[in-house]
């Protein structure tokens, strides 16, 4: 064929007859399927029809493969977000918009080991890692049981929040139940560590209210986290909570409908302009 322009390809391929059909998806050409012969012989109509059928199947397979690659890309993105709930969120309809930032009523829980700073300064590194592993394993079980979202581990401290990225109707109550379970589960751990000479306890702070949630970080490492006064309040209550103590905000107790004791005096907390009524659970 004098009009055929790809002479170099013909010489490299060694073909004398070539048949190419387009691959369509939604009326858009996404590729070309070609077959060739090394002898000079025209293709029959049946062969053209068969190749066209294969081209349709190849187009469907290509689109499916691209979709799978897109999902895998999303999964890679999800790996940057520790909580599984956030991984599910980004694959959901409207998930990307939520990651950009939104407000939601949540309950936030901060948990921290009392005596850990002194312990880590005196203990061997292997002992510190062993304690943290046992602690994280026990705390994580209660997070999962009550369907909380783990905001991340920070050494001996951790943050958990409820009612985002998916709704939890009784989020305040679940947070309190989780905190109680954590305290109960911490007791045998503390006893074991005490026999090894380590005096450790657990303090917990809980607050309920509105917060802004979304993606923060940088390319290669993103976190999905809440920010705002509610988060700060929970963190400050945790700071005030002694070993074996759970401190909760007034709004948390009202929403959770659990027995709690109002402290005699409101607490002055860093970053909170007015003294805060606080309950011990």
Secondary-structure topology with pairs:
Elements: H1 7-13, E1 17-25, E2 28-37, H2 45-78, H3 84-90, H4 95-99, E3 102-114, H5 116-122, H6 125-145, E4 149-154, E5 157-162, H7 171-195, E6 201-218, E7 221-227, H8 229-240, E8 245-249, H9 250-256, E9 261-262, E10 278-280
Parallel strand pairs: 6-8
Antiparallel strand pairs: 1-2, 3-5, 3-6, 4-5, 6-7, 8-10, 9-10
Helix pairs in contact: 2-3, 6-7, 7-9
- Quote the distance from N terminus to C terminus: 88 Å
Determine the CATH superfamily of the largest domain: Nucleotide cyclase, GGDEF domain
Task: Report on the biggest sheet.
Answer: 8 strands, mixed
* Average pLDDT figure: 85
CATH topology of the largest domain: Alpha-Beta Plaits
- What structural class do you assign from the helix and strand content? alpha+beta
Our count of helices gives 9
Strand content: 25-35%
> Under the CATH scheme, which architecture of the largest domain would be assigned?
2-Layer Sandwich
Total strand segments: 10
Order of helices and strands: HEEHHHEHHEEHEEHEHEE
- Characterize the overall form: elongated
What's this, in brief?
This protein is α+β, with helices and mostly antiparallel strands.
Can you give a write-up of this model?
The protein is α+β, with helices and mostly antiparallel strands and 281 residues long. It has 2 domains: 7-78, Beta-Lactamase (2-Layer Sandwich); 97-280, Alpha-Beta Plaits. The protein is built from 9 helices and 10 strands. The strands form 2 sheets. Strands 3, 4, 5, 6, 7, 8, 9 and 10 form an 8-stranded mixed sheet that branches. Strands 1-2 form a two-stranded antiparallel sheet. A hairpin with a 2-residue loop joins strand 4 and strand 5 (157-162). Helix 6 (125-145) runs antiparallel to helix 7 (171-195). The protein is elongated. Residues 77-82 have low confidence and may be disordered.
